[in-house]
Structure formats: structure tokens, C-alpha cells
């Protein structure tokens, strides 16, 4: 009754379905692995956000990147902004609105610099558009913020050009700043004197993301491929033309 399964056409069909099913199954496993990683990252972030603030030099250094275990750790900084090294991070949308993030180096009391993401301002999505950004507070400031790892990208995206960048990374500022520079950057939470930018930086969204449903979706595709193969086998086995 099912001897047709040994024909070349059906053997190739079965191999195709098997490969497709395995691929979909592995993609589902990959999505659930990403879900576990995201939940683990959320635990680290929640712990760091709740921790007591520490001096920025306790978690960031000029010699090595910020460890993942210190991501979003609350830190304090005291020093003066270096306004002439300020850059705009283009194409930063917020609530569907186009804009820029404003990054200004802060000079600490020992001369070390650290990049501070001061906040966000609305602006057209154009590298040539003029943006009216208020200057940072003058003189000494006390900043509380969150330690962040460098954003990864091509050298052109992280290296300042015409006071603009596409991503925030201290690696792109090393040649432009003739002083020790802490790896990573700090997203500002509060400042004394007050930060003039109306819209500050935002905390991360601590959710599970779409990975759970993506994983179920890939497993559904695997089941659909196998179930579809079984259906076609059933239809073929009942086809009277096959006997003739």
C-alpha cells in the first residue's frame, strides 16, 4: 500500500521535509536560547539598577571594556563637561519621533574623560540638518547615571566626523580625545546643576521580547512540514489511479 514511498520522487520529498523540519526545530531552539540569555541579562540589569551608586572608576576603566556584569550599574561622576568635543548621535528615534542623542565628554578631577549621554532632542533624520541643542551646564557638575557598554559598529559609525556619529562607542573617541578615556559611556539619570535637555536618557525595557513566540512559530513550521508530508502520503495512498 505504501510501496510508492520507495520511489525516487517520494524519497527526495521525504529528505526535503526531514531537512526542513530539523532546520525549523533548531531555529526554535535558538530562539529559546536567546530568551534564556535575555532573562539572564534582565536579572543583571535589575540588580545593577537597584544597587547603591558607586564612583564611575570602580566599574569603568581606560584599560578594558565594561564587563557585562556591570551593564546598567548606577554610577556617579564629578567634573566638568568638555563642550568642544560634544557630538550628536544621529537617527535616534523615540516614540516614533526622529531625533539625536547628545554625547558630551566629562573631565573628571584626575583628568580622565568619560563619555556622557546627556539626553535626546528632536531632529530631522538627516546628517545635514541643523539641530538646536542646549549646551551642558558650565563649571563643575555632579552626575548620576548608568554605566553602558560600547555600541558595536563599523569604524565610520563610531568615529566622530563633523561632530556627528551613528553609534556611541569610546573606541571611536580615543584619537580625538588626548587624555585617558574610560571604556564605555554613561547614560545620564540626573545632574546637579540640572541638565538643560528636556528629554533625558531612558531605562531599558525589561521584558522577554518576542523570542518565546518566535520559538513556538519555528516549531509550528516544523510540525506543519511533517504533518503536511503525512497528509500527502495519505492522499497518495488513497488515489485509485495509483493502483491502475
Could you list some keywords that capture this structure?
alpha/beta, about 240 residues, about 30% helix, single chain, five-stranded mixed barrel
Structure notes:
There is one protein chain. The chain is α/β, with parallel strands linked by helices and 244 residues long. Helices cover 32% and strands 23% of the residues. It is built from four helices and eight strands. It has helices spanning 8-50, 155-158, 211-237, 240-243, and strands at residues 54-55, 74-81, 87-89, 99-108, 113-122, 140-148, 164-165, 181-192. It has a five-stranded mixed beta barrel with strand order 2-4-5-8-6. The longest helix has 43 residues, at 8-50. It is elongated. It starts with 7 loop residues before the first helix and ends with a helix. The mean pLDDT is 90.
Topology:
Layout: H1 8-50, E1 54-55, E2 74-81, E3 87-89, E4 99-108, E5 113-122, E6 140-148, H2 155-158, E7 164-165, E8 181-192, H3 211-237, H4 240-243
Parallel strand pairs: 1-2, 3-7, 5-8
Antiparallel strand pairs: 2-4, 2-6, 3-4, 4-5, 6-8
Amino acid at each position: 500500500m505504501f510501496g510508492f514511498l520507495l520511489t525516487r520522487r517520494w524519497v527526495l520529498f521525504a529528505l526535503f521535509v526531514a531537512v526542513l523540519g530539523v532546520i525549523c526545530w533548531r531555529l526554535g531552539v535558538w530562539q529559546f536560547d536567546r530568551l534564556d540569555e535575555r532573562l539572564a541579562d534582565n536579572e543583571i540589569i535589575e540588580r545593577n539598577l537597584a544597587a547603591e551608586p558607586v564612583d564611575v572608576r570602580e566599574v569603568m576603566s581606560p584599560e578594558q571594556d565594561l564587563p557585562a556584569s556591570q551593564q546598567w550599574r548606577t554610577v556617579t561622576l564629578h567634573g566638568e563637561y568638555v563642550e568642544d568635543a560634544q557630538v550628536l548621535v544621529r537617527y535616534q528615534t523615540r516614540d516614533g519621533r526622529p531625533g539625536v542623542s547628545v554625547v558630551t565628554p566629562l573631565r573628571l578631577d584626575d583628568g580622565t574623560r568619560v563619555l556622557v549621554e546627556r539626553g535626546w532632542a528632536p531632529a530631522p533624520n538627516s546628517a545635514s540638518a541643523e539641530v538646536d541643542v542646549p549646551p551642558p551646564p558650565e563649571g563643575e557638575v555632579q552626575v548620576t547615571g548608568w554605566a553602558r557598554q560600547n555600541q558595536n559598529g563599523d569604524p565610520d559609525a563610531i568615529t566622530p566626523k563633523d561632530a556627528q556619529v551613528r553609534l556611541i562607542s569610546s573606541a571611536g573617541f580615543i584619537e580625538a580625545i588626548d587624555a585617558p578615556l574610560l571604556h564605555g559611556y554613561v547614560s545620564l539619570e540626573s545632574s546637579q546643576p540640572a541638565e538643560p535637555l528636556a528629554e533625558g536618557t531612558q531605562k531599558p525595557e525589561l521584558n522577554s521580547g518576542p523570542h518565546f513566540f518566535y520559538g513556538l512559530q519555528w516549531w509550528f513550521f516544523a510540525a506543519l512540514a511533517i504533518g503536511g508530508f503525512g497528509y500527502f502520503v495519505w492522499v497518495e495512498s488513497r488515489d485509485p489511479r495509483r493502483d491502475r
